[in-house]
Amino acid sequence: MAGKENNRPQRRILHTSDLHLTLLGDKECRNLEAVVDLAAQMKVDLVLVAGDLFESARVDNHLVSFVARQFQRLPMPVAVLPGNHDCLVTGSAYDRPELWQKCANVHVFREPKGEILTLPDIGFTLWGKPILSYDDDARPLAGIPRPQNDGQWHIALAHGYYVTDPVPYFTSYNITRKEIVTSGWDYIALGHMATFACVCEEPVKAYYCGSPLLIGGVAIVDLAEETGVQVNCYSLTTK
Which of 14, 71, 90, 191 gets the most CB atoms within 10 Å of its CB? Predict the structure, then answer.
């Protein structure tokens, strides 16, 4: 894997997606509370939300404020990728800076062609490209750069369908095996599919974490030079 260094520290990530938060106080909100509780309990170094945190881009302000308060409970960084449901349109849940201003630990990927986020204090370099509209021609991993040899763990986020057929059944949000295996990144955190699933083991690990609403869990990703990238599904405890 590109960028591999012998002295990279062991790290742990909580990877979730597709919470589809809709209304304040519903089951989806309890799932988010459980995700935050688990992140704190397991002392993860980083939380990733690989798309569709919200059911819609135009949810109520009270719901957005609730999400912001939940993420404020965490001491670690939270990286959020807008998906196809909560895409980065004008007036979206992510286009309300007054509601997010107290969340210094939250980063939302906003650059149309994808952007790199470097977190040197915890040894991560992240890349993500948000979905910008409800159109169906987005390519979530198109344009991903090769990681630099910077001694950090390289983690990408993508929201879409993993496809292997030359002419895929789904024509939107396609993520191809070639894009994954040639990326050179250590782990690709996928969202959009409701079940926990590995789509690539080598040379790049790529997993769907599944939707907490369906599977009642998230992916916990452990990274270490000796053992590589290990991914397991952990159950949530809801109140």
Answer: 191
Place of tokens 């309890």: 30
Task: Supply the range of the domain harboring residue 24.
Answer: 11-235
Find the helix or strand (DSSP H, E) in which 136 lies.
none
Strand partners, 175: 162
- Residue 192 buriedness (CB in 10 A; 0-12 / 13-18 / 19+): buried
For 29: left if phi > 0, alpha if psi spans -120 to 50, otherwise beta; the answer is alpha
Q: Which amino acid is at 25?
A: G
Q: Residue 30: helix, strand or coil by DSSP?
A: helix
Residue 66: CB atoms within 10 Å = 17
In a domain, 137, yes or no: yes
CB neighbours of 198 closer than 8 A, spacing ≥ 6?
A: 205, 206, 207, 231
**What is the count of structural domains for the chain?**
1
- Is 3 part of any domain? no
How far apart are the C-alpha atoms of 150 and 132, rounded to whole Å? Answer: 30
**CATH number of the CATH domain containing 47:** 3.60.21.10
φ, ψ (nearest 5 deg) of residue 44 = -70, 160
Q: Residue for token digits 């955190």?
A: 189
Given a contact cutoff of 8 angstroms between Cβ atoms, the answer to whether 54 and 88 are in contact is no
Tell me if 2 is assigned to some domain: no
Contact between 52 and 91 (Cβ < 8 Å): no
For residue 5, is it within any domain? no
* Each residue's pLDDT tens digit, 70-120: 999 999 999 999 999 999 999 999 999 999 999 999 999 999 999 999 999
Query: Does this model's pTM top 0.85?
Result: yes
